[in-house]
Give the backbone structure.
Amino acid sequence: MKLKRQTHAELCELQRRTGSAIMRRLNGASRMQQTWMDGRRTADVVAEFIKPNDRLTSFDRIEIYNRQYWFRLIDCLYDDYRGLHAVLGQAKFNRLTIEYLDRYPSRCFTLRNLGSRIGQFLDERPDLIQPRAELAREMAKFEWAQVVAFDGPVETPVTVDDLLGANPTKLRLALQPYITLLELHWPLDDWSIALKNSANTLRSEASNAVESEAKTAIERPKLPKKKTVFVAVHRYQNMLYYKRLEPAAFAMLAALRDGRTLEAAVGAVMESNEDRDWSAEVQKWFANFTSMGWFCRRK
Amino acid sequence: MPANRFNGFTDLGIGIGLRVPHYSHILSKKPTCDWYEIISENFMCDGGRPLEVLDEILAQYKVVQHGVSMYFGSTDPIDRLQLRKLKELVKRTKTPFLSDHLCWGSVDGTYTHDLLPVPYTFAAAKNTAERIKFVRDTLEIPIVVENVSSYAEFHASEMNEWEFLSEVVERADCGILLDVNNIYVSSQNHGFDPYDYLNGVPFDRVGQIHIAGHSKFEKYTLDTHDHAPIPPVWKMYAHAIEQVGSTATLLEWDAHIPSFDEVHGTALKANRFLSQSVDQRKTKKRLLSTSAV
Amino acid sequence: MKSSTQFSIAAAALSGLLMGTAARAATVAVPTTPANHQSIQKSVDAGQKAAIKLADSADKHDCAGKNDCKGKGGCKTGDAGCKGKNSCKGKGGCATNK
């Protein structure tokens, strides 16, 4: 008897069913769920399209992919959000990543963007990050800023020609897209460095990676105490930096980023202290920022 | 068959995968290495350190791009942004050819980021071949497709894997990146003779070979790339080289990555088989010319 | 009064912009030697260098099978000693293989 050949529509449907099984949440023991969405046994559902072999059932075989899917994506988020992991602890971080991936599965070919909506998700689901919701949200923003600074796009910095004869009342500059300005209520820059240094020390001392992960969890630095800091997360010579800013410099850069003129941005500086003569300070800031290529033409 | 139209008529020799833990060694010591394979997606970014490193590597070494997300077997529309970024990278690296996997991995726009086995059907072969052709024509570069390790099989399959591979590459008129370790892993998981697979491959289309290590669990074997290839894989490699001829070979090592020297030294073991193959061919040629006289 | 002060600070900003731009142009034009590289770095205050960007220590994409997960917090026994990848570094332990 000649076997009926699969149609393209059937191929699409098969991929859809397989995808549903693979991307479905694992159970509490990190195994594939026993019950399918419609209440049937998962084993019966997957047996309809996956062959068993002499050692593994259809369920066992698709479970390898189901676990692999979650492990790969959770690891990717862990790599980008180790600070958030440290703030929340293992169990809460784990739950957060699962809920996040369920709500915002990857819609992009690159894993680089997998965690791009974590910040938004934390706003939507504060219940997952209590009692440190504010700290967790800031940590997530700070860590995503690092992803952006690490490999985000760069525009051609402004040149002398762009600036000669420019009128400050009309001149509008843009900040490089890889720079993120953050007002943080905890000194997360210092804390992140301490966290990474302790992890690196432990890693180099440990005889293998598994041990080092366990030690890292135990010996990480204590959570930071509250203190407001203004930080630009950026890269310089392709290395990642956290630059502390004076509140006035932060306000000025934020104004420029938001499209205000140079003169208006300077106004933001004056608002912080009208009596102070800011000229020398502002000149120094701009010389420094520009020497790092922070400003580009506004499109 | 080292240089053919599927690998851009290159004869690259023995390479290793370019991995982050080796960056500083490679950039500072500039060790001899015939070529590096990069995972395209790790460099499909807009700036920063990855591209800086890549440019430094490109100034010193030959680089070939290997992708993990084109998903030739998926039924989703091809992502134009991804293709545009890939084309930019192809221009940057001047890769002589491009490889990706004979698999699917996204459905309805959601990505699993895994290399999932395709049901071996004629509909899947047609779909896959059309996508390969589209990508090749857009990127204007030869493409070789790699057989994946798999852990599951579909009831819907209408042929075995090597028949499916042949069907796809004939329809697409593209090359093969023959992953010998993947054949071994799948043979363990599905219970076929890996030499049946090897002998069923259209050898004239092989443009590159992969070797790697895997992990054996109680009930299945996983393609973990976390140690050196085991002797049975080297034996299969020798057999493949015997059939295909001296072909660009690359060792993949992705987890528990040891020193550059250890990875490169392991890869260079392939030389033994490559030189044997050259000797055998010379002998064969000599015998043929003698018998002709 | 405020407006004229604001304008003079804006003029100072513009002069700072020109100074920085010129300094940057000079660093691009002059070939970097260890000596001038150091002096350029000294003149720029980039802030604190991040210890290591963790994304710089591992590749995001590879084509290896994954049977564990560092994000789950390490491995328990019974998972082939985590030799392959059957657990998760983000989840706090790996379940036992069947």
Observations:
- The CA atoms of residues 244 and 289 of chain A lie 12 Å apart.
